[in-house]
Amino acid sequence: MRLPLFPLDTVLFPGCALELQIFEARYLDMVSQCLKAGHGFGVVHILDGREVGAAPTAFASIGCEAHIRDWQQLSNGLLGIRVEGGRRFDVQSSEVQDDQLTVAQVAWRAEPALQPLNERHADLLVLLEALGQHPMVKTLGLGGPVDDQATLANQLAYLLPFEATQKIELLRLDKPDLQLEQIQSLLEQLQDGA
């Protein structure tokens, strides 16, 4: 499938919300087309380049579909949109159009079956609840009660201050229990380094 891409300095995860301010013509056109057609666009992490200006020369080969959930004209005159992460995908090939919008041929990744939480996840649940008390996390609708491993893993991977390369690797893992193990390991590394 061909999917327009929005390369960003962030890594979007399924079920997680992201607020964006749109001002470049290529992305205003993309958002308009997505709203008219009722489909999303892809968010990929920039590896080489910038969010603004010419299309980045390199970005992660895995990304997350973004569904537009709300939009409004902001007080600064820009278009504000809120997106929610959908399916994960692998970029098979990409091209930069004349308007500098990157369009990719993508392959959708299979989503894992829902796995219930168990007592091993108690500490991570408490951590997510604590993160959910932050006003910015509350405005994104994250950090509330969760009851499956994938939701817990995606929200923690999105919210915690891991390096972008670590987040990309977490997005690449297909099994939520492996994601949670890796998150626990990364947290221990953060604590050791503190």
Task: Record keyword descriptors for this entry.
194 residues; alpha+beta; Archaeosine Trna-guanine Transglycosylase, Chain: A, domain 4; five-stranded mixed barrel; 6 strands
Task: Compile the SSE list and pairings.
Layout lengths: L1 E7 L8 E6 L2 H13 L3 E8 L9 E16 L5 E18 L5 E7 L13 H10 L3 H5 L9 H11 L4 H9 L3 H18 L1
Parallel strand pairs: 1-3
Antiparallel strand pairs: 1-6, 2-5, 3-4, 4-5, 5-6
Identify the strand order in the major beta sheet. 1-3-4-5-6
Instruction: Tell me the fraction of residues in β-strands, as a range.
Output: 25-35%
Element-by-element helix/strand order:
EEHEEEEHHHHH
* Count of structural domains: 2
Number of E-state strands: 6
Oligomer: single chain
| Helical amount | 25-40%
Q: What's the total helix number?
A: 6
Mean pLDDT: 94
What does this protein look like?
- With 194 residues, this protein is an alpha+beta fold.
- The chain folds into two domains: 107 residues, Roll (Archaeosine Trna-guanine Transglycosylase, Chain: A, domain 4); 75 residues.
- It is built from six helices and six strands.
- α2 packs across α4 and α4 runs parallel beside α6.
- The longest helix is centred in the last third of the chain and has 18 residues.
- The protein is globular and about 50 Å long.
- The model has no long low-confidence stretch (mean pLDDT 94).
